[in-house]
Amino acid sequence: MGYSLFSYVLSNLNNSQKTLFIYSLSGRGKEEGMVKKVKGQSLGKGAFLVPIENSFLFEQFLDKWKLKYNKRNVLVPS
């Protein structure tokens, strides 16, 4: 199955912006975050695997936060 591997850094955000970003990414309370919306999986700090059909939406999310990121398309065997 095809996925996009995203890695990003939060160095351009201050502490309160980082907190807001994490809430937006992971969700808070009953509100679901972007990772769940795009059916992504966390691979560790600053890295996510997103199904290729949802990668554009995740890219727009990262662009909205003006984050520096890298994207690689990968194939993951079933």
Descriptive account of the structure:
With 78 residues, the protein is α+β, with helices and mostly antiparallel strands. It is built from 3 helices and 6 strands. It has helices at 15-26, 34-37, 55-64, and strands at 2-9, 27-28, 31-32, 41-44, 47-51, 68-75. The strands form 2 sheets. The chain has a 4-stranded antiparallel beta sheet with strand order 4-5-1-6, covered by helices on one side. Strands 2-3 form a two-stranded antiparallel sheet. The chain is globular and about 40 Å long. The termini are close together.
Sheet-strand content, in percent, reads 35-45%
**Which segments are poorly predicted (pLDDT under 50) over 5 or more consecutive residues?**
none
The average pLDDT value, as a whole number, equals 94
Number of strands: 6
Structural class, please?
Answer: alpha+beta
Q: Which radius of gyration do the C-alpha atoms yield?
A: 12 Å
